[in-house]
Amino acid sequence: MGNIFILTARLRKMTTGQTRPPLSNVVSLPDVKTTDPFVMQTYSSWIRSLTSVFAVDGLRIDTVKHVEKSFWPGFTSAAGIYSMGEVLEGDINRMCSYQEELDGLLNYPLYYRLTDAFRDTNGNMTSLSFAMTAIPETCQDSSLLGIFSENHDNPRFLSYTKDMHLNMNVIAFTLLAGGIPIIYQGQEQGFSGGNDPSNREALWTSSYSTQSTLYRFIASINQVRNRDVYANPSFLDTPASVIYSDNHNIALRKGLIVSLFSNMGSNATAYNITLTGHGYQENQIVVEILTCTNSTVAIGGDLQISVQEGLPQVS
What is the average per-residue pLDDT within 247-254? Predict the structure, then answer.
């Protein structure tokens, strides 16, 4: 496992005359002039030393948009390693513009659309489908974006719904939709805290279980992903393609993996979806890995997927 150093970028300069409100909950942090050449050089020297001494593999940089864009190229160049920045921004164009300064970003535009699509059975699947196409077309390299469905700044997904099958769809999508998948600690244990600080539960209360339903589910999906990473050299660099979408379902193809996600929920009756553009051959037997059930590609190329209880389907 690589070493990831999390850097809080509280370097912003206060405007002239700006003061902290008295008796407020705002933490007073030192502000430095990040446009000053001496300051920029000092930070560059510090991060160069830190990444070298501690053999850091990557940086996760907090609150990037609160520092001038001009600061980041020199800083990340001095670091000499992959740098992922947090730009808390739902607009695709604005978020992608920061990839001119940093290698990667937390994919907030996709996060918002992902949670909106699956947080209930009337979620907006159209917006999610749009983002899956628009983000690779807009960003310099979407394979370097961090894809997530939970983190320490936002409510956990299970605070929106208690439907475990909706949650499993979100997790599977996070792992298979491209970019760099990020699982927030406690997500594998089904933690359900709402706004900060409730979403920062102590992990030891779970006894670090490796037998929980979600832990084993994540391990299964990750195993499928790893298989394709090793079998297909272009897997990591190739964006997922949307091959089907409607009001309640979205299907992706990435490498050798075809996946179908549903927001119908655990109370849904069984239904079938017919997929094309999956890349399989006529008469090919396709195995759904979560249930170990087989489907056969029809003459003409149609692949019929049976969705049971709103669970994700991964082949």
Answer: 97
Residue 275 has pLDDT above 60, yes or no: yes
* Rounded (10°) angle between helices 37-53 and 72-79: 30
Q: Is the peptide bond before 155 cis (omega within 30 degrees of 0)?
A: no
Catalytic: 62? Answer: yes
- pLDDT of 16 above 50: no
User: Residue 96 has what DSSP assignment?
Assistant: H
31 catalytically annotated: no
Residue among 86, 163, 188, 288 flagged as catalytic: 86
Q: DSSP strand E in the chain: where?
A: 4-8, 58-62, 82-85, 104-105, 146-148, 180-182, 241-245, 249-254, 257-262, 271-275, 285-288, 293-296, 303-307, 313-314
Candidate list 36, 62, 120, 246, residue with the active-site label:
62
Pairing between strand 180-182 and 146-148? parallel
Residues ≥6 apart with Cβ < 8 Å to 72: 64, 85, 101, 102
pTM of the model: 0.91
**pLDDT value at 17 more than 80:** no
CA distance 99 to 96: 5
Instruction: Give percent of the chain above pLDDT 90.
Output: 88
What is the strand order of the sheet 257-262 is part of?
241-245, 249-254, 257-262, 313-314
